[in-house]
Automatic annotation (TrEMBL):
This is Glycerol-3-phosphate dehydrogenase [NAD(P)+]. The gene is gpsA. SUPFAM superfamilies: 6-phosphogluconate dehydrogenase C-terminal domain-like, NAD(P)-binding Rossmann-fold domains. Substrate binds at K108, R261, N262. The keyword Hydrolase does not apply. PROSITE patterns: NAD_G3PDH.
Length: 339
């Protein structure tokens, strides 16, 4: 297959390396939007900025350019993978709206809400329906730290799309000795899981940073899964999707794994850092910071209760201290577990 991966951050670089090393011998190009980034990677044959200490396979091609260049390369590919942060997805999809090749994005989040609060941020497939409705598109998600995928460690992903052509292209591109790709047609459920787990990972990072204990972390993960599922079902997802890789799987990984940037934000806030300090020190995107408010706004609009996500928003906004956010959760009225 001819594959272009747009976005040379940690995750784009890892999936490009993984596809380039696939036994079927795919021709893979990693495309950076900055020429300087392409040149630095070309010189080092690695991505020192975003995924240090991982050498590129000799066959991995590198490129950079503008939107027209990306569209031309996409038109000539069998699969287009968009590995930029959520904030860039709208622009990328708009630029690719006439592309005929299957397109899959890897970002996990809702768009941040617009400041006027009149329009709520959207999931990837909702943005695509607005700006590029004719694309054959979907999402690749699931529990997957970039460093482990780049190192060829065993990983399971989920390819979600209403189009079999997209699901099949993702399976052909990535399914191999170290990566299993499962197909799913519930793109709403897969995208909600990927977005909400980032918000919940901030909560468990905070919990662990405050040394609240393993009981508390297990409670946050379990009740977090319940609120993620409530939102997803209200948005049209199937409940069982949340028991799969993009739901429970990615929640467990991100909420407990110290490679998670979102979890690290919670840990740093617990240490007394400001949000700006925590975000600056990452050097990578932490999508939960940008989409927590959207998650809560969309839940409120649907009448869905999401107390943990509400607590994260209050913490990020600075309206509650870490200790007050914990107290607010503990002081809630008793309720039935299935509710
Ligand atoms: N890292 C991981 O383990 C995983 C990440 N993801 C998701 O993938 C997405 C990307 O994450 P990750 O790669 O880790 O983020 P990073 O912060 O490591 O890198 C983001 C990259 O996106 C580039 N970028 C920004 N805007 C554009 C654009 N318009 N076009 C092309 N490239 C652009 C940045 O380039 P520059 O710096 O030059 O602006 C940078 O190289 C996120 O939504 C994340 O949630 C999903 C699964 C695993
Ligand atoms: O999505 C991820 C793992 O599946 C990466 O999580 P973080 O963005 O929190 O590092």
């Amino acid at each position: 297959m001819k594959i272009i991966v747009c976005g040379a951050g940690a995750w784009g670089t890892a999936v490009a390396i993984s596809a380039a090393a696939h036994p079927d011998g795919h021709a893979v190009t990693l495309w950076a939007h900055s020429r300087a980034q392409e040149q630095a990677m070309q010189a080092a044959r690695s991505n020192a900025r975003y995924l240090p200490d991982v050498a590129f396979p000799p066959s991995l091609g590198l490129a950079s350019g503008d939107a027209a260049d990306l569209l031309a390369r996409a038109q000539a590919s069998d699969l287009v993978v968009l590995a930029a942060p959520m904030a860039a997805l709208r622009g990328l999809l708009h630029g690719l709206r006439d592309c005929r090749a299957p397109v899959a994005w890897l970002c996990k989040g809702f768009e941040a809400s617009s400041q006027d609060s009149q329009s709520f941020g959207l999931l990837g497939h909702e943005i695509q329906a607005q700006v590029a409705p004719d694309l054959i598109a979907g999402v690749l998600s699931g529990p997957s730290f970039a460093q482990e995928v780049a190192a060829g460690r065993p990983t399971a992903l989920v390819a979600a799309s209403e189009y079999a052509a997209v699901r099949d292209a993702l399976v052909r591109a990535f399914h191999g000795p170290s990566v299993r790709v499962y197909a799913n047609d519930d793109i709403v459920g897969v995208e909600v899981g990927g977005a909400v787990k980032n918000v919940l990972a901030i909560a468990t990072g905070l919990c662990d940073g405050l040394a609240l204990g393993l009981n508390a972390r297990a409670a946050l993960i379990t009740r977090g899964l319940a609120e993620m599922t409530r939102l997803g079902v209200a948005l049209g997802a199937r409940a069982e999707t949340f028991m799969g890789l993009s739901g429970l799987g990615d929640l467990v990984l991100t909420a407990t794994g110290d490679l998670s940037r979102n979890r690290r934000v919670g840990l740093l806030l617990a240490q007394g850092q400001t949000l700006a300090q925590a975000v600056d020190s990452l050097g990578h995107v932490a999508e939960g910071v940008y989409c927590a408010r959207t998650v809560v706004q969309r839940a409120r609009a649907l009448g869905v209760e999401m107390p943990i996500s509400e607590g994260v928003v209050a913490l990020l906004d600075g309206t509650l201290s870490p200790a007050e956010a914990v107290a607010a959760l503990m002081e809630r009225e008793p309720t039935a577990e299935g509710g």
